């Protein structure tokens, strides 16, 4: 019995560490005040500045999912041969002019609407000047003065609370969303002391989302970015793949005491995944708190995140405070978008206008709505619905299983969350890599429903199926002889045997101590090597121990 | 017109008009600074110090140095700087115009409709032609120095360029 309890505990601990990033595992609340001890860091906490908290603002660049670039007709494609997708305009040859891509405007408006922004009917383009080899023109066309969308809000959630099972909802204000050009790519060749420039990416459309510094730690930032990723993917405006650079996040981090003015901020770059985002921010907050506690000052600088060491290091190439000399883009008139068809000027070509109403009507189902629907349709808990939508492919998996089994959704959720997701997380696999297909899992669940196998037996079958690709549940049950014994005669005989050999226990039961039935049940199970159908056995034992014998 | 005189005296690496543009911009910003609330802190920073000094018709050497770094232009000689000052004074004539209640124009194209292109691939297959333009290429990549080469200090620059043809 003791080993059972220990196993349960171990399983729970494993689950906990699987579902959470390591450095947050020990935290109860999202708090990066210096009071919290972090198992990975070795900073000693002094009682003097215990109230310093982190302030995090994000600058996100989302690459617009389109066929061609923002201001030219060059193709947009990942991993093409270097400089094979560059037009004369992209290379900034004199005499070329920008021509705006309608799809990019629609994408920006769609994203603005999904994030509850006000769409500026008239927005303007500007030039932002700086010199770098991957920016051939010496300036980037952006929308600094009047962007296409402003004043939005992103609502995001994460699992918090004592058991990390409560859905905590937060908001972050979106200051603006603007259209701008991407720069080319620089590959640093330290061996030959040169930089190789590939302009394929130069001119690709980006949406820059500027968020207010409403967040206070890495967990919040990670959850916000995850939600944004889901929204952008649902809209189809950006594929949101951070490792491929389709979604780039820079974090502005500072620390201060609540109520006091904001501290000096640093910009953290080179973050390639959501997990690293959380770690980078938390590291930077701790670093700044450490600096402050030692009586130093935080410098306004740009730092790069090094995923190997988990630290942020100052970036060499950034010179002090840049003056970008913003000026209006002289080659582009203002961008006008129309509210609805009624406000359109007469006789205008439909391919020459962007109508906000039309885009609003065409918005697909957003993740928050999806979660609500899941809760309504299946009666599952909000935290489960949250995880279903959050994990790539998990919702589809769950719905596939539901189609093929009569089992209750809440029970199916248990299997999907614990057995399936648990295994996936442990082996760092995605849902699409699961060796057990939804149909196979559904079959196993059906077999359990019909009493072919006990619930603990089913778990064993699951494990075996995981390790042996393609075997069906039925096959495993037969091979491992895990099928429940439901043969009445056999059960009766064994029960009788047990009852006959334990008169003391039977006596106790007859006297009202029903708990002893469990002991007898245990003995029967031992006889049958755990394959007795517990419901049937209990019935039979109760019958036999009721006064009067067989 | 001073614009053309400027071309002769300043070695601006082929962007002489930009100098006029940016100086015009500075004075326009100054105007904006007086009449409308500050919208963009960073952008107006440079014009702010210009604001206090330009009335004396002297542009501080630090500001000249900063402009040279930002725009990679070279005012070189005293004549060059005098030219700049004259250009600013020329643009200052804008202040004589009463623009109260008038929306600033930031593009002569403001009454035109912005043409929207369909999202189709129509170009971009120019790798060979473009790479031919570069002196240095490595396997279809353009070659650049490892990072931005910092502009030499003012004194060093003067010494370096003393013997140049411009």
From TrEMBL, chain A:
Main location: mitochondrion
Pfam families: GatB_N, GatB_Yqey
Subcellular localization, as worded in the UniProt entry: Mitochondrion
Keywords in alphabetical order: ATP-binding, Ligase, Mitochondrion, Nucleotide-binding, Protein biosynthesis
NCBIfam families in the record: gatB (TIGR00133), PRK05477.1-2 (NF004012), PRK05477.1-4 (NF004014)
Gene Ontology annotations for the cellular component aspect, listed alphabetically: glutamyl-tRNA(Gln) amidotransferase complex; mitochondrion
Protein name: Glutamyl-tRNA(Gln) amidotransferase subunit B, mitochondrial
Physiological role: Allows the formation of correctly charged Gln-tRNA(Gln) through the transamidation of misacylated Glu-tRNA(Gln) in the mitochondria. The reaction takes place in the presence of glutamine and ATP through an activated gamma-phospho-Glu-tRNA(Gln).
Enzyme Commission number(s): 6.3.5.-
Highest rank taxon of the organism: Eukaryota
Enzyme class: ligase
Automatic annotation (TrEMBL), chain B:
Keyword Phosphoprotein attached: no
Major subcellular site: mitochondrion
Gene Ontology cellular component annotations, sorted alphabetically: glutamyl-tRNA(Gln) amidotransferase complex; mitochondrion
Enzyme class of the recorded protein, top EC level: ligase
Key words, A-Z: ATP-binding, Ligase, Mitochondrion, Nucleotide-binding, Protein biosynthesis
SUPFAM superfamilies the UniProt entry points to: Glu-tRNAGln amidotransferase C subunit
An annotated Gene Ontology molecular function: glutaminyl-tRNA synthase (glutamine-hydrolyzing) activity
Reaction catalysis annotation: L-glutamyl-tRNA(Gln) + L-glutamine + ATP + H2O = L-glutaminyl-tRNA(Gln) + L-glutamate + ADP + phosphate + H(+)
Annotated localization: Mitochondrion
Swiss-Prot/TrEMBL GO biological process terms: glutaminyl-tRNAGln biosynthesis via transamidation; mitochondrial translation; regulation of translational fidelity
Matching InterPro entries: Asp/Glu-ADT_sf_sub_c (IPR036113), GatC (IPR003837)
This enzyme's EC code(s): 6.3.5.-
Assembly notes: Subunit of the heterotrimeric GatCAB amidotransferase (AdT) complex, composed of A (QRSL1), B (GATB) and C (GATC) subunits.
NCBIfam families hit by this protein: gatC
Function: Allows the formation of correctly charged Gln-tRNA(Gln) through the transamidation of misacylated Glu-tRNA(Gln) in the mitochondria. The reaction takes place in the presence of glutamine and ATP through an activated gamma-phospho-Glu-tRNA(Gln).
Record family assignment: Belongs to the GatC family.
Protein name (record): Glutamyl-tRNA(Gln) amidotransferase subunit C, mitochondrial
Lineage of the species this protein comes from: Eukaryota, Metazoa, Chordata, Craniata, Vertebrata
Gene that specifies this protein: GATC
């Amino acid at each position: 019995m003791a080993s059972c309890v220990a196993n349960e505990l171990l399983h729970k601990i494993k689950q906990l560490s699987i579902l959470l990033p390591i450095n947050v595992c020990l935290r109860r609340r999202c708090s990066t005040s210096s009071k919290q001890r972090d198992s990975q860091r070795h900073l000693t906490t002094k009682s003097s500045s215990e109230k310093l908290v982190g302030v995090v603002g994000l600058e996100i660049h989302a690459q617009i999912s389109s066929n061609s670039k923002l201001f030219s007709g060059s193709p947009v494609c990942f991993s093409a041969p270097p400089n094979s997708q560059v037009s004369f305009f992209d290379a900034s040859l004199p005499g070329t002019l920008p021509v705006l891509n309608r799809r990019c405007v629609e994408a920006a408006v769609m994203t603005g609407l999904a994030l509850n922004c006000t769409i500026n009917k008239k927005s303007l383009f500007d030039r932002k000047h700086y010199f770098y080899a991957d920016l051939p023109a010496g300036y980037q066309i952006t929308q600094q003065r009047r962007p296409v969308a402003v004043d939005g809000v992103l609502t995001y959630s994460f699992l918090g609370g004592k058991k990390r099972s409560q859905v905590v909802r937060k908001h972050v204000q979106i200051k603006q969303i603007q259209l701008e050009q991407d720069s080319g790519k620089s590959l640093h060749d330290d061996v030959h002391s040169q930089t190789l420039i590939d302009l394929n990416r130069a001119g690709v459309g980006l949406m820059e989302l500027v968020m207010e510094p409403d967040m206070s730690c890495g967990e919040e930032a990670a959850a916000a970015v995850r939600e944004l990723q889901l929204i952008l993917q649902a809209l189809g405006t950006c594929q949101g793949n951070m490792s491929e650079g389709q979604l780039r996040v820079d974090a502005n981090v500072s620390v201060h005491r609540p109520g006091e003015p904001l501290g000096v901020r640093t910009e953290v770059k080179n973050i390639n995944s959501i997990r690293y985002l959380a770690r980078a921010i938390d590291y930077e907050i701790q670093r700044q708190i450490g600096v402050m506690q030692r009586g130093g000052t935080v410098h306004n600088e740009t730092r790069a995140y090094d995923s190997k060491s988990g630290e942020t290091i100052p970036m060499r190439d950034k010179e002090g405070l840049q003056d970008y000399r913003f000026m209006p883009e002289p080659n582009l008139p203002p961008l006008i978008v129309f509210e609805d068809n009624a406000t359109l000027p007469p006789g205008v070509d439909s391919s020459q206008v962007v109508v906000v109403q039309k885009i609003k009507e065409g918005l697909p189902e957003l993740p928050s709505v999806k979660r609500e629907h899941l809760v309504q349709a299946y009666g599952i808990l909000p935290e489960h619905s949250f995880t279903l939508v959050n994990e790539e492919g998990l919702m589809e998996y769950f719905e596939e299983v539901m189609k093929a089994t009569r089992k209750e959704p809440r029970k199916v959720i248990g299997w999907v969350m614990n057995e399936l997701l648990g295994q996936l997380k442990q082996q760092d696999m995605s849902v699409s890599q699961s060796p057990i297909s939804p149909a196979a899992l559904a079959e196993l669940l059906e077999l359990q429903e019909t009493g072919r196998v006990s619930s603990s037996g089913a778990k064993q079958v699951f494990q075996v199926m995981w390790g042996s690709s393609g075997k069906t549940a039925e096959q495993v049950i037969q091979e491992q002889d895990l099928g429940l014994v439901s043969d009445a005669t056999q059960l009766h005989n064994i029960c009788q045997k047990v009852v006959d050999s334990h008169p003391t226990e039977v006596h106790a039961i007859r006297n009202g101590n029903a708990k002893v039935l469990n002991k007898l049940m245990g003995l029967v199970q031992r006889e049958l090597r755990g394959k007795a159908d517990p419901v049937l056995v209990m019935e039979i034992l109760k019958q036999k121990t009721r006064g009067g014998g067989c | 017109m001073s614009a053309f005189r400027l071309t002769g005296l300043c070695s601006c690496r082929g962007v002489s008009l930009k100098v006029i543009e940016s100086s015009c911009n500075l004075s326009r910003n100054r105007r904006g600074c007086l009449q409308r609330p500050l919208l963009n802190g960073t952008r107006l920073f440079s014009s702010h110090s210009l604001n206090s000094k330009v009335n004396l018709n002297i542009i501080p050497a630090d500001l000249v140095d900063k402009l040279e770094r930002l725009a990679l232009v070279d005012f070189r000689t005293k004549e060059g700087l005098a030219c700049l000052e004259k250009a600013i004074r020329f643009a200052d004539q804008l202040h004589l115009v009463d623009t109260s209640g008038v929306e600033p124009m930031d593009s002569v194209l403001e009454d035109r409709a912005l043409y929207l292109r369909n999202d189709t691939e129509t170009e971009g297959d120019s790798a060979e032609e473009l790479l031919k333009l570069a002196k240095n290429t490595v396997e279809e990549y353009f070659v650049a120095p490892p990072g931005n080469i910092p502009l030499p200090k003012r004194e060093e620059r003067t010494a370096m360029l003393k013997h140049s043809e411009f």
